[in-house]
Amino acid sequence: MVMVRPLNEVILLINLEKCYIQSDFMQSEMEYELVEFGGQCGAVAVLFVQDGRDYMELGNIVETMGCLFVQGEAEIMGVVLVLLSPSTSEQRYSYYHPTGVNHESYQNFCLKELVPAVQENIWKQGKEIVKMGLLGDSLGATVSLAIAIRQPEIWDTLLLQSGVYPTSLQEELNALPMQNWEVYQVVGLQEDNFHYGLSDEVFHILTHNRALRDIFSSSSVKLAYYEQDDGHLWSFWCRDLPRALNFFIYK
Question: What is the mean pLDDT of residues 72-99?
């Protein structure tokens, strides 16, 4: 149990736990962190967060969630953040990019090892899981959508910040039967022609997001779509995060 001072200066008690899974798919020990708000609640919403350490250190996700939690109807539902953090930029690309060498293995790890382990942990506490969601930025949003497509029936909410959505991923989504997802999607107007230095690729992120918006809009998905006059920066995603998390908790 740790004390966190959310952005509105209210001190909030939360549970923070570091966990490990010996993954058959990744052939290594995988680390993740659980952050729980409202330990007294009998029902929880679970949000799986790619780039979890960056969301903590650069996005202020714990403080932001704490602020939203104490301002809202906290007695109704708790929130569990599952924070996943690749160790290096190279590892991140390998896990998150559709052509990454460990992309499929990472999806299998998330769906077949991580999700069941988190669910079992919560159920053993006698708690009900009322919704599950995915959050990611940039390539973290890419892999979040890829994971959702692989097993669409277990997800309720997708929070996608400035994702990279190549044609192959759009085609997979188009071929998917209609889903009842609630999707939050945000992109910056300055994000086309973004040069990704690690792989020397150029990502047309604004164009990708508008194409994805059109796919979602023609389906049964409940979509909240926003364009902001921003670039591909953590300062943008941090400012946007309260709106995104509020969408997850209260929609």
Answer: 87
pLDDT value for 204: 94
**Of the candidates 135, 172, 167, the residue with the CA atom closest to the CA atom of residue 151:** 172
Compute how many other C-beta atoms are within 10 angstroms of the C-beta atom of residue 216: 21
Q: Is the per-residue pLDDT at 2 higher than 70? A: no
Share of the chain above pLDDT 90, in %: 79
Nearest to 108 by CA among 7, 216, 23, 226: 23
pLDDT at 1 over 90: no
For each of the domains in the chain, give its residue range(s) and CATH number, in order of start: 2-250 (3.40.50.1820)
Output the furthest CA–CA distance in the chain (Å, rounded). 49
